[in-house]
Amino acid sequence: MPDAPTLDAFETEVRTFLDAHAQPKPPAEEFVWGKGDDDVAMFEEVDPETEARQLAAAKGWLRTRAEADLHWIAGPTELGGRGLSREHAMLYARLESGYQVPKQSFFGIGFGMVAPTIQAHGTPATTAYLDRMYRGDLVGCQLFSEPAAGSDLAGLQMRAERDGDEWILNGQKVWTSGAHYSDIGEVICRTDADLPKHKGLTGFVVDMHAPGVEVRPLRQMTGGTAFNEVFFTDVRVPDDHRLGAVNMGWTVALTTLMNERASIGGGSGSGGSGLVSIVRLIEMARAFDRADDPVVRDALMRLYTGYAVSRYTNMRAAATIKAGGLPGPEMSIGKLALTANLTATTQVVSMILGPKLVADTGEWGTFAWSTFATGTPGMRIAGGSDETLRNIVGERVLGLPKEPGIDSKSPFKDLPK
Questions:
Q1: How buried is residue 156: exposed, middle or buried, by Cβ count under 10 Å (0-12/13-18/19+)?
Q2: Could you say which of 103, 131, 164 is where a domain stops?
Q3: What is the pLDDT of residue 381?
Q4: What would the mean pLDDT of 298-307 be, rounded to a whole number?
Q5: Rg (Cα) of the chain, in Å, rounded?
Q6: Rounded to 10 degrees, what is the CA torsion of 367, 345, 327, 179?
Q7: Most buried pick, 27, 146, 197, 267, via CB within 10 A?
Q8: Same structural domain, 231 and 261
Q9: Residues 287 and 262 in one domain
């Protein structure tokens, strides 16, 4: 096995690749609203044809990266990865962010949550999916929440019953992002109702195209249908697609949730580029003659400070992971900071645009901002509600007493539903 390239050598390799296959983004001062992808809201509403075209472009870009062995930079070589450090992977991500490439949000859940869980708890049959995921051949989704089990995930009721070398799954999941274009899903099921609710769970990797899997879109107030409800009717899953030991699914779920909060919370400090750019917000305030308003100026400064604090917090978390640590309960802070920063951004934009935020005059990306404003409240629930995350921080970071009234000892079948 050849020696790993130094960061300087790797940067040269990456820049050569990017220069050959993509165009650099224009400087911030040359940005024009309505030109390019940077003015698209993070809660974008697109029609099915546009979504299919964007997904195809994203898959094509990942295949191009794979041809250059840049698709899974920090992945172990035995599973198809490049075998380099997280620092190499972070360097690639930083360099690629300066180029106009297809948006990769389709793979965010698969790369940030599902793949790390498969790598930690999977069998040879499931870890074989990883290289295909990073090459863009497979898209993954996360099937956790249920109509009666959201913040209280351990209260889920979807069943998995053993049948020889297979499991039969029946039940419903809800709020599953990207289920309609996913190929595989990580699902947590109830496998023993005689055990307490945290003990009788088991994780699986399920084929989203298998007989008995039905995906139905859920329309949100942005007008889009990024979320879905998924119904399972006698869906058969081989036992070699189980994640972890039987009835140890809560450990599997925690692995996913900690990676989820690290992945989502990692964006809490991104106040310097894309739609949420402090520089562009200041320019927008000037364009609408609000830059000299002391209330607006104070709000912009507070927003800048919020993103800066989050960025430094994320850097400390990244340093811990780089040193070999795993995402821990403190990553809940990053997710809380993200929702706080997004909410503050919406408030600042509302001050500047006023009625134009709703009227969609076409100025300064008003449509993008209106979908941003209507999509932001959902982030207070996604990846764990703000209230649940505050409990986690209080109990597991600050050492405060646990929330009263949680029955973690009685058999699940005896709990009120």
A1: buried
A2: 103
A3: 81
A4: 93
A5: 22
A6: -20
A7: 197
A8: no
A9: yes
Are 282 and 373 contained in the same domain? yes
CATH number at residue 209: 2.40.110.10
* Alpha-carbon dihedral sign for residues 112, 115, 117, 119: negative
Count how many domains the chain has.
3
Residue 46 is predicted with a pLDDT of 74
Residues 162 and 262 occupy one common structural domain? no
Q: 61 versus 225: which is more confidently predicted? A: 61
Of all residues in the chain, the percent with pLDDT exceeding 70 is 86
Q: Of 45-49, 161-165, 197-201, 395-399, which gets the smallest average pLDDT?
A: 45-49
Given the DSSP bridges, would you call strands 201-207 and 159-163 parallel, antiparallel or unpaired?
A: unpaired
Question: How far does Cα 393 stand from its chain's mean position?
Answer: 20
- Range in 271-280, 289-298, 337-346, 404-413 the model is least confident about: 271-280
- Asked if the model's pLDDT at residue 12 lies above 60, the reply is yes
Q: Is residue 67 part of a domain?
A: yes
Instruction: Determine the length of the chain.
Output: 417
Instruction: Note whether residue 155 is domain-resident.
Output: yes
In a domain, 236, yes or no: yes
**In Å, how far from its chain's centre is CA 145?**
15
Nearest C-alpha neighbor of 373 from the set 350, 352, 351, 340: 350
pLDDT, average across residues 282-308: 92
Strands 140-143 and 184-190: parallel
Highest mean pLDDT among 79-88, 217-226, 314-323: 79-88
- 136 in a structural domain: no
Point out the catalytic residue in the list 44, 186, 260, 330: 260
pLDDT on residue 393: 86
What average pLDDT does this structure show over 101-128? 95
Q: Which domain holds residue 13?
A: 9-103
Query: Of 306, 236, 294, 300, whose CA–CA distance to 267 is shortest?
Result: 306
Same domain for 236 and 327: no
Sign (positive/negative) of CA torsion 159, 160, 162, 166? positive
For residues 174 and 142, is the Cβ–Cβ distance under 8 A? no
Residue 315 has pLDDT above 90, yes or no: no
Mean pLDDT of the chain: 87
DSSP string, 218-243: E--TTS---EEEEEEEEEEEEGGGEE
| Single-letter code of the amino acid located at 255 | T
Instruction: Please report how the helices 331-353 and 249-265 are oriented relative to each other, as an axis angle in degrees rounded to 10.
Output: 40
Say if residue 239 is in the same domain as residue 151: yes
User: DSSP E strands: which ranges in 69-180?
Assistant: 99-100, 140-143, 159-163, 166-173
